[in-house]
Structures are given as C-alpha cells and as structure tokens.
Design brief:
heterodimer, A: 254 residues, four-stranded antiparallel β-sheet, B: 378 residues, alpha/beta, four-stranded mixed β-sheet, 4 strands
Amino acid sequence: MNQTIIQVKNLYAGYHDQAIMEDLTFDIEKGEIFVILGGSGCGKSTVLKHMIGLLPPVSGRVLINGQDMVSATGKSRIRLLRQIGVAFQNSALFGSMTVLENITLPLKEFTFLPEDAVTTIARAKLGLVDLAGKGHLLPGELSGGMKKRAAIARAIALDPAIVFLDEPSAGLDPLTSAEIDLLIMDLAKTLGITFVIVTHELESIFTIADTVIMLEKDTRGIIARGNPNDLKADTSNAYAYQFFNRKPKRDKKP
Amino acid sequence: MTQPASLTIDQTDSALVFAFSGHLDAGGIAGVWERACRRIKKAGGPALAIDLSGITYFDTAGAAFIAHLERMARDRNWKKTDITGLDPDAFSLLERIRERHSEPGHGTVPSGGALRTFVENKGRFLGDFLYDAQTFIAFLGEIFWAFVSSLVHPGRIRWGETLRVAERAGANALPIVALISFIVGLVMAFQSAIPMKMFGAEIYVANLIGLAMVRELGPLMTAIVLAGRSASAFAAEIGTMKINEEIDALTVMGLEPVRFLILPRVLASTLMTPLLTVFAILVGILGGAVVVLSLGHPFVAYYNQVVGFVSWGDFVGGIIKCFVFGILIAATGCIRGYQTSQGPSAVGDAATRAVVSSIILIAVFDGIFSILYYALGV
C-alpha cells in the first residue's frame, strides 16, 4: 500500500512576498523517485528550497511525515531535518575537509558513536556510492561526477528517509550522468530512500523517475504530472509536449 | 572595412524624412545614431519617413536602429512611420527585430530632473544604510546569543576549529603586528624627540611612547592590522562557502552556521586580539627605546620612565578595548561574509566591506571608550 511521505499543500513559492509559483499541491509517495521538472528559471530550485526548509515560502505548507517543515522551529525543526538529506547542485562539499570528514561531520554532530564507528560507517557510505578509497581526498581533487557521489554519500550519512537532489546530472558527461542515475536507482531500491529530484535532464528523467511534476513559468503552476513516458505522448498541454519531445516553439505544434 | 552610413534629413509639412545610404551595421550607424535621434526629439512630426533605398548593407544592428527610430516616433504620438527601399529579406529582419524587441519604455530610466535623482539617491543610500544597520545588529544579537548559550554548554563549541583560527588570525599575525608597532614606536619617538630635545626633555619621550602605546596606539594599531588581515579573511572564507552552498548544506543538516562557523572565529579573535596587543605594546615601546638609546640615555632610564609613568589602570583600559575590538573584527568579517551575494566580484566586495566596516567600527568604539574613560577618570 502506498504511503504518502511528503505533502505540499497550497504552496506559493517565491521570495519575500513575490510568488513565482502559485498554489502548488502535490503528494510524494514513500520509496518513489519523484522529479520536479521545468524550464530554466521557472522556480524548481526555489520550490526545493521551500521543501527542505531553507527558504520560507510566501504561503502554504510542506508536510514531511505529517509535520510541517515551514512552521517548524527549534528542536522539532532539527528532528525534521534529520529525516532528510540534501545534495546540492554544485555538491556543496566543505572544501577545507576531506571527503571522509565531510561524511563523518553529520555523524559526529548528531550521534554519540565512537570515532572508529563513525569512520567505519562513513567508509561504508563511500563504498555505497563507489568512492571506496577516496575518503582522504579533498573535494577540490575530485572530478565532477565524484563530487556528486560524495555529496550523495554525505546526504545519506544519517540514513534519512528522503533525499533531495538539486540537478544531480548538471555539468556531467552522458556516461557519468548515466552512472549517477544508476546510483540513484540502486540507493532507492536497496535503502528504500524516497528521492525528490530537481532536474531538466530528459534522459535522466525517462530513466529514473516514477512520477514527474512539471512547472511552468507563465502559468505559475503545475502543468503536467504523472509518469514521464506517459507525459511524452500526452498532447493535452502544448508546452509539456514540446518539452518532453524536445520540440521548441518554432517547430510545428501537435 | 565598414563604410559609415550617411544621413540626409528633410523636414516637409507632412513628415520628417530620413534618407540613409551606405552600410547600416554597427560600425556604420555610429555616426548617424545621435543625429537622427536628436532630430526626432526636436522635430514636431507629424510623421516619420525613412528612405533606405540608398543603403548597401543592412544587419541586425541597422534593424535595431530603424526600429528604435520608429519607436521614438510612436512614443511622441506621431501619425505613422513609412519605411521604403528595403528588400524583402532586410524587411523580414526588421520585422523580426520589431517582434522580439522589449516593450516600449522597458529599461529606460524615468527622468525626473537632477534634484529628484539626487534626493532619490540619498534616500536610497539612507534606506540601504538603515537596512544594513538593522541586519548587522540582528546578526550581532544572534552571535551574542550563540556565545551565551555556548558558555552554558562549552562542549558545543568547536574548540579544534577555534584553535586553528586562533593560530591563523593570532599567532601568524605576530610578524606584521611587530613590524607595524615597532615602526610606529620608533617614528613617534623620533618625531617627538626633535622638539623635546630643544627643551632638554628628550627622556620624557619614554613617557609619551609608553602612555600612547598602552592606552591608544597598541590596541588601535593591532585592531587595524587584524581588521585588514583577519576580517577580510573571515569574510572571504564564509563568502566562498555561501556561494558554494556550503552554508545551505550546514543549515539543512541541522547545524546552525552561527555556532558552527562564526562562533569559533569570534572566540578566537576575542582571545587573540588582547594577546597581540600586549605584544604590540612591548614592541612599540622597544621601538621608542631605540631612539632614546641613540640619544645617549641608558635603557634603565627609559624603562624607569615608562614603568613609573604608565599605570595599571592605563594598561587594563587598553586591554578591555581589545576584547571589544576583537569581537567587532570577527563579527564584522563573518557578517559581511554571510551577506555575500552572487557574482564574480561578490567575495571581493564582501572582503572590502568587512575591512571598511570593521575599521569604522573600531574608530567609533575607540572614541566611545575615550569618552567613557574620561568620564570615569581612568
């Protein structure tokens, strides 16, 4: 039976009082790979920032396991944050720490594990993302794909139920991008993690996504939702059809 | 090579007529743009006629120019603009530029006269200043609160990071602090010795140097060196972390950036500034000693003058200031780093603002301390 893990209710996304997306409502099921999709500058990353509690929305609610992320403060907010992991677009690894130290940081801050246990767990996470033996390197010494893997390893350090990924394939070659896709599918399957991914990489979306919502700048809302392969054939929304079939405006519309 | 366009202007009863010839490209229109625009601004219309039959080349720059002239005429409510002499390809290019051009008035600055602009600028500056002051004070409050709660739970302080920052901001600053203080002591002693020698009072240079270094110059010079060295470094470090989303990463991990990043820097700076100041005072006094010794006085005489004249009250007064300067330097550097925006110059701007703000605050607080000490009779 499906179980809703995230509920976004009447979310007005934006900065201060300026909404760039209006009245977004959607649910995310436990264990699915959920993709938030849209053209450049439509506000995907802003919606993500509201969902992870980095930016207060204009209005609306984001419920994670029934608890509101938007209004949570103090310890209840920390408890909510413990349920999520985030890998940012440019990885956001701490440049002054080694890869291993990046992963041990949340373990040291939020658990009372002895040092060797922390290191062992962190090494295991590195192994999960195929970075075994790279823990001693600084982030500056890693390739783009390795940085993304290390960021995912840090995001799953505390075994969160949900992992948010902002543009995980951005700036990667097709092969490395495909490897990241495989990694995401593997982690979703083996660890049962729910992935919420912001991207506009169609190849990745068709490969990994169970459910997609598509945002559009002009209508300031969701213009399509469902399985990406179904949406590719759906002609009911011209922009969504153009987007999924890579047909820019000047081409003939369906 | 680009041939410049030429323009013939004719004003008839029915229209202002522009006849262009030559190349209408970016290079070609440079010589006629201003003249054509000026003429439209002066003329009364009632219509615009553009004859392009004499042109030999036409590209997007030329099309943008013609579309601009059309728009100027339209903005002045002229009846119409007739364009003649364009071949179909060039005309379709012009159509394309018209379609894609931003709406009328877009990007133009509303003119309101020099006085209005002046008042607007001052108002905006004041608004920005007040907003900046508000965020600065709010941030200082947040740092203070983190500081107090860390005193209650000292285990939450990142002591390793604090020591690392103390080494970089404090111990590594010893050579530059020593150099500046020695030179300040030396130069001040030298400059004051010349007139004092005329009265046979050159030994009192020791009193001057001792008191000035302990009460004012030691704390002030150390603080200014640290503002240039550490505040900018803190701002650059934290600014780079902000741009790389590292601070966002900390936040979503549930680690407060103020406790994690800022508090170790504030603690290290607050503890190291007084220590560096003691060192600066000693080296500055030594600088003065070099001059006094060169004037033929023994070191013991210089030492006795300094020790006999400078009281413990002077010393404690100077050191208390240093704690405040240390907090100001670190807090300003961290806050400016935290306020880093996006863009290639953002980190540089943050570092510059950190240095400027901390030097201003140091000067202001030094003045406040002077008044306070005067009132207290210290």
